[in-house]
Specification:
The protein has 4 helices and 6 strands. The protein is an alpha+beta fold.
Length: 141
């Protein structure tokens, strides 16, 4: 959040004040994927049920600056899509801030497209985010 504040719907100042109980709940409410390169965390992403019955949500994708453009983000996105297919979801939804063009290009590369839904990133600020969706086929049995 400090390195790329434009990419998040909250702020570091807000998040750092949250109690440990909040963070423990956050870990168990979503499936988490971590990418490592040489034993070092290179990126993370969250996945869980979306706001619609048949949708999964891809949340909080982050790749360390020194590991960007090396396939880490792609691997994390595909891990979420595979997880969603295994869970029987028919689509993956995500939100991307309008100024995070590199992330949006990455999502488009992986089959996501804007849905037309927009939202304010943080109340009281002018920035918006765009919803994106990717249809998926359920995993074969």
């Amino acid at each position: 959040m400090q390195e790329a504040p434009y990419a998040f719907g909250s702020t570091f100042a807000r998040e750092v004040k949250l109690a440990e109980k909040h963070w423990r709940n956050a870990v168990v409410q979503r499936t988490r994927f971590v990418a490592e390169v040489g034993g070092v965390v290179a990126g993370t992403v969250g996945a869980g049920p979306g706001e619609f019955t048949s949708s999964a949500a891809l949340t909080a994708l982050w790749v360390a600056p020194r590991h960007r453009d090396q396939g880490v983000g792609s691997a994390l996105i595909e891990a979420v899509v595979a997880w969603a297919a295994d869970q029987g979801f028919s689509q993956v939804l995500l939100w991307v801030t309008e100024v995070n063009l590199d992330a949006e290009r990455l999502y488009v590369h992986h089959g996501f497209a804007r849905t037309g839904r927009v939202s304010v990133v943080r109340p009281g600020e002018p920035a918006i985010e765009n919803e994106m969706s990717r249809p998926i086929e359920p995993a074969s049995m």
